[in-house]
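It is worth pausing here to work through a concrete case rather than discussing structure prediction in the abstract. The textbook approach is simple: state the sequence, then state the predicted structure, then interpret. We follow exactly that order.
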Amino acid sequence: MKPFHILSCGFILAAACLCGAAHAALENPPADFTFNSWQKDHPPAAPAKRMVLIQPVKAGELRLTPTYACCSVCWGSAEPVDGLSLEYRVAGGEWKKGETPPYFLDAANYRGSIFGLAEDTSYEMRLVSAGKTLASGTFRTWKTDVPVAKTIMIDPTTARYPIEIRDHGTPDGWIRYTTKPGVVLGGKDLMSSVFRVTDARYVLLDDMVIEGGGGNRNNAVFISQSTGVRVRNCELYGFGMVGDPLFTARVGGKPGYVDAKGKERAINWSSSIMIYPGSAEVTVERCYIHDARGRSNSWYYSHPSGTEGIFVYRVDHSTVLRWNDIVGSDLHRWNDAIEGCDNFGEGGGFNRDADIYGNFCIYANDDCIELDGGMQNVRCFQNRFESAISEVSVQGCMVSPVYVFDNLLAPCCDEFGWANPCIKTSTFNPYWFSPYAGIWGNWFGEKGFSPSTGYKARMDLRDDNVFSTGEIPRDWATKYPVRDLPFILNTGVIKDVRVSGDAAAPASVTFTAEATCALPFRIRQNFDADWFAVTPLQGVLRKGTNRFTVTFVPGKMKDRRFWRSAFLVQATNGLSRCVSVYGERTDFAPPERPVSDGPRTIYAPEFASAVLCGKKDEMREFEFELKEGGTYWLFARAKGANRFTRAYVSLDGGEFKVAGMRLWPTHAVWHMLFLGKKGYCSGGDLVGGFKLEAGRHTMRIRGTKRDPFELLGLAVSDQPLAFEPR
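Step two, the predicted structure:
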């Protein structure tokens, strides 16, 4: 066997055989298990199909599946073993104790992982109980530097898109694709894939700049039915599809869009890289993914759909995403920075034996990463996930175990200021097989972690997790994402930058890089981050202290109040140190009338602002007459001290229903009123529009004692985008 994939697909047979009474695996939900509404619509796979998807080992068999830094362990045992422990060592070295794998009754298997391994190294492991070795095996971890047998230099003047790759390299001779420095493949109008990698073996896409790609299966890089593919040190941007939200209909179960040709369609799965079913041992590393063509809607309207950085779709096994920078912005928010598919399928998402580590994912309207699916020995560690509605989703967890440890989970919010718990588990383990999640050593910001344990869940939430409502500690912000670089910055976050008029206060911010050796660098930032500049822009870090300046450009910070982006101090190999940037234009005032008065936009007559705090006589009434029937939305212009505020609204004499709003205490914003919703829309909803006939209508609004707010205006309109609370 060759070093790259030694043991990755095969079994190692253990001679040990367990004795004792047979312990039958559960094949059906227990008698006391009751399906909820989601489970009734998404029942678990039939037992036979489930076993095919899990691929369990037989009693007495041991399967070891290594990657660069970890190794999955699966051992068949007819029943749990008292006092079982896992030990491992570098071949011939001292034994170390590892995490004991959890036992899973569904397949009569122990499943778990060995962490913190060195690359390209031979290891031994054993499972021990009462001084006896019950199973043992050896494995070798993957190596970064692979032998290249052939390099193909792509000439953009003769390239025909998509560039089809079907090469079959070998573990001892990879096929490398690259370009000359300065070349950009693809183009801003390219809607096909730039690369389609199909039925390929041991192929390396290396050190390229890739623009364009249109979306699902026309992604910039589309990988299908291939083994041993690596995408390394590439820059990808300008991918995905553009469309105007279609608020009156859903297309394919997703919020609809009208594309550039006027066609109604769902826009989703529009990622730079898609890893499709049948693929195994795929690595994406040291890539800078940014500035998608389009954007994703937020939960303010409905379940997000739109662009993603990387999409992982029911792969076979052994996917590794490491040291990537997946940087969105408020103009180009991700749906998920890293998204999966088949969230409640046993083979869904990353499926099994996957590592996601050292990544920087920021500015998503849903999750920074969606691990949902099989999650059988899926490991997520040493990442920095920031500014999303949730940082990590582990819903479903249909096989498990999943491990989320040693991450910086730093919420800010989606583009309109809404945040959920850092780890989303609202439908974790919706079934009966007692899945396991190891949640260790993470830093949680703000909302932290709110597990939904379901039926006999094993949520291993350890005491070494740090829960905080304050600022990200400097040592976390500068260390994460964890990367092996010979320099470190003295900051990882620049915030509280306030701009007004034509001057910034402060006009600039300085930071330093402490280097242990000379190292070439360049500053990377998204195209739409032109509201600040970092100097020097490129050069060589000298050993010792290096000083940088971030200068803000108030003249480009005009059309909204909050400004969010990031920049990278990047080495030539693609590894970088990351800094998130948060600015605010304090004198920005959203327009009192975002749309001119007309037959389909009507404002309430001016009235004196009032604080609505639940008193019966503190109600505002708005009578309006529509000349044209159609779909309309209701809006309130308000501000309030409670970030989440509940109003109560009645339409045309109906009962008062709750309508959640996200407000600021410092300035008034227009907010859509979702009657009957405590917050934003749920996944099955659209966006709260009302079918209203021509004629007279009445809206009434009141507050509560718990959530007082100052009301400054009311409106009805068919143009919800214009009223967004920016």
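Step three, interpretation. The longest strand covers residues 562-571. The mean pLDDT is 89.
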